[in-house]
Design brief:
Helix 13 crosses helix 18. It is built from 18 helices and 36 strands. The longest helix is centred in the N-terminal third of the chain and has 29 residues. Helix 16 links the parallel strand 33 and strand 34. It has a 6-stranded mixed sheet, sandwiched between helices. Strands 17, 25, 26, 27 and 28 form a 5-stranded antiparallel sheet that branches. By secondary structure, it is α+β, with helices and mostly antiparallel strands.
Length: 832
Amino acid sequence: MSLSPLRLYLHPEGLAWEGFSSYMHKKPQRSVTVQEFQQLIADTGGQDISSAAMAQLEEAIVRAMFMLESTANQRKTGNNCQSCFQLLEVTMVFNTTFHPFLLQVKPYAHKGKMASLNEYVVRQRILEDLAVMLVSKETVVGDVAMGLGELGLTFPTQNGLCNFDESFCLSNDQLLYSLDNRREFFKKGNFIKLYPSTSAVKYTSLLQTMYPVSRGVTGLAATPAQTGGHTTSTADLHSYLLSLESFYADLDKEDTVLSYDDMNIPIDFEVVPNINSSSLHNSKRQSISHVPGQIKVHCDKDPASMPYLKNLYINPKSTLSPEFSPFMTEYHITVDYDVLHIAVWAFAKSCSSQARMEDKHGVSRVGNFTVGIGENRISVVVVDMSYAEPWVLNTYTLVIQRLAPDYQLTSLLPGLPHQVCSLKQVRHSKTRVQNVTVVDLKSWGTWLGWVGGNRQWMHQRYISLTPDDLSIMPPRLVYFTLNDLILINKNYDMVPTTNVMFHFLQDCALRFAPRESCGLQVIGPTVSWSKFLEKSSSLPQCRAGDESGKWYVPCKSCTDTHSCYWQQAIWQPDGCRYQWLPRGKVKQCFAGKKVLFIGDSTNRGILHYIMEQVNGSLHEWDKTHHLRVYSMLNHNHTAFSFAYYPQFWLPAEHRPVLDKALYQLIKKNKPLQNNSNTVLVVGGVHWLAKHHIDVVLKALNRQGLTGIRLVVKGLGSGFHQPVSGVHCLSKKDHQRLLSHNLATLRYAKTNGFSVIDTYNMTMARYKDFLQGKCACHFHRVTMTKKENVKKSVGSKRLVKAVSTGSEAVYHVEGEINAAYSEMMISQICRGS
C-alpha cells in the first residue's frame, strides 16, 4: 500500500481462526487462501453470498485506506514518498451471515515469535511476492505513453504534462506514480490489485463525500499550481486513474485474447481509428464515465436512472430512428456503401453505471466497428459497477443498414447494351500479341521487349516499331507486362483493342500493387450482357482453381462503380470458365463422401454453402469455434465436419497446434476411406503458410490417409479496417500477402493439393464484406422460413405421418462466397 495517491494490493494468502477467542489467544490456526475462503463460504451459504462477502471485504479495506489517507492529509504529517510502500496487516471478522467487519489495521512487522509454522510460511510467501513486485524492471514507458495519448495528455508545460487547455496536468511525481502503477501490474505475482482498477468507479461517491471540493473525482484533477505544491490526494486523480485503467484493460485484452493468430504478418495494435470529427477526436480519448479535461459529462445520483443511457453518439454523424430517448432501447440508421466502419460511444445517466460496448466486459470508451453490406447490429450495455462482477441493467441495440453499391439501380435488362467492365486479379504473367507496330505505354515503370533481351525503349510512352525493328523480332512476337495498351494497325490508324484483359487492376482505395493501375476497366465495345454471357459460355471449363481471372460486371459507365449491377457480376478466368454444376450432379458427386473442413470462419462459410447445395436446404448451422460434425445429409449419404483453427482467443501456450486439431477431426470422423470419398479442405484468412502444408501431409501419413482428396483455400481479404479488438494490416502487409499467397498455393499444388485462389477475388471487392469485425466475411446465414416436420410412425402395413413441430430453414447469402464455393465444388467433384 502507498498513499497519496493510493495504490493498494491484497495478498490472497492469510491466516484464519475459528472464533474470536481463538484469535485473541492465538490458538492453533490454519493458513487459507482467498479462493479457499470463497469456496468455504460458497459451500455454506451459496455462491452469491460468497461473491458478495469477498466484494464487501475488498471494499472495506479500500474505504479504510481512503479514511487513513484523509486523516494523514489533514494532519499534514511529513513529506510524502511517492515510491515508498507500506506492508499492512489487516484483521477482519465475519459474522454468521458472512458480512465482514474491519477489526484492526497495523503495520506489518516480520519479527518476533511466530504462533505456528503456518504463520511463518504465509509471511514468507507474502514477502517473496512483495520483493518481486517492488524491484521489477519491466519496461512500461510505451504503455503509459499510449495511455496518456488516449487521454489527450500530450502538451508539456510549466505545470507538467497537460491537456490542450491546461485544465488537467500531471506533475513529475504523478508521472512516476503512473509508471510504478503499470510496472507493478506485470510483476504483481499473487497480489490482487484493489486500487486503482476498472471496478473502482464504485468509490466515486465516497470520495465525493470525503473530498467535496476535489475536481478530480468528477473529471478534472488539480494541477500542481492549483494545489500550491501540496501533496495530491487520490481524489484529485481518481478520474484520471480510472480512465487509464480502462485503457490498460482494453490494451491487455487485445494483446492476450482478441488478437488474431497470424504467423506471417506482424500485428500492430497502435492503430488509431480514422475519425475526422474534432469533437470525436477529443472525446474518444476518454473513459466513457470519466472524462478528464475534455468533454464534461454530468451524471446524477438518482438510483432510478441507473439502467439508462444519457447520450448515444455515432460518427460519421447519422440520424437515429427513432430520435434518442433513454427509454427507447432500439435504434436504426442507414449508411452509404462507402462507409466501412463507424465509431459509437455512449454515456450512462447514473454516476454508478457505465456504458460498455457489446457486452458487460466490453470497452467503456469509444468503439470502432466494421459495417458490412446489409444489416449490422451493435449492442451498448449499461452495467452496475458496484459489484465485483458488472451487472447488466439494460441493453441498447443499434441496427445499421449499409447500402449495397447498386441499391439505386432498377433490375438489369440483359438484352440492352451495357459496358462490360472488369476488376482483374493481380498475377504477373505474360501474353503474346501478334502483328503489332506501335504501342502506347500509359504508365511509367512498364517495359517492352522481346526474346533476345532488347529493352532500349524502357520507360518511354510511345514506341514505334519500324519495318527494320520488325525484321529482327523472332517471329514477330512481343512479350508484354503492361498497365495499359493501345495498338495501332499497319496503316497507323488508332485501334483501341477489344480484348486487352491483362491489366493489373485493384480497388483504388486499397492499392496492394502500388505501381499498377486501379479501378474498373472497359474490356471492349458496348455489348449486351446476355451476349457477353453467351460468348463466355463457349469457353472450355477450367481445371485448376487458381486460374488468372477477373470480375466482369455490366455497367452503365465503367467510370462510376455505382452504375454497375454488382449482383450480376461473375468471376471468370481469361481462357476458361468455372461451371456451376447442376444440383443433381452435385448431390450425386457428394454421395458416399465425408468432407472434413479445418480452418477459420471463412472456411466455415464455404462449408455451410456446400451443405445447402448438397442437401437441397440447410436445417442446421452455427458459428462454432470448436469441432462439429454434420451427418445424415443428402439422404444420409454425405457427412460434413468442421474444426476451427487457429483458436486465437486462447493464450498462445494453450492453443492446440494444427496436427493435434487435425487428429481430433480425423478421430471424430472415423472410419475414413483412403480414397477420394474422403476430402480434406484446409484454409483461412491469413494464417496459412508452407509449413502448415507439411504438417497436414505428415499427419495424414501417420493416419494412413495418403490417398484422400486434398484442397487448400487460399488467403483472403480482411483486417483492413481500424476497429476495436482486432489488428489492422497496412498496405505494405497486403502487398506481402499477395506474394505469400501465391507461394503457398504453388507449394500446395506441388504436394498434391487442389487449390482455390480466393485472395484476388476478395481483394478486388474488399468493400463488399458482410457483418463481422474482421471485414473478412463474404457470407451470411439467414433464416428463410420454418417447415413442418413430419415423422412416419406405425407398423409396416399401416404407416402415417405425424407432425413433430416446425424446423427452421436457412440460406447462405453472399455472391462472392458463392463464387469461390462453387469453384470448391468443382475441384472436389473433378473426375467424379
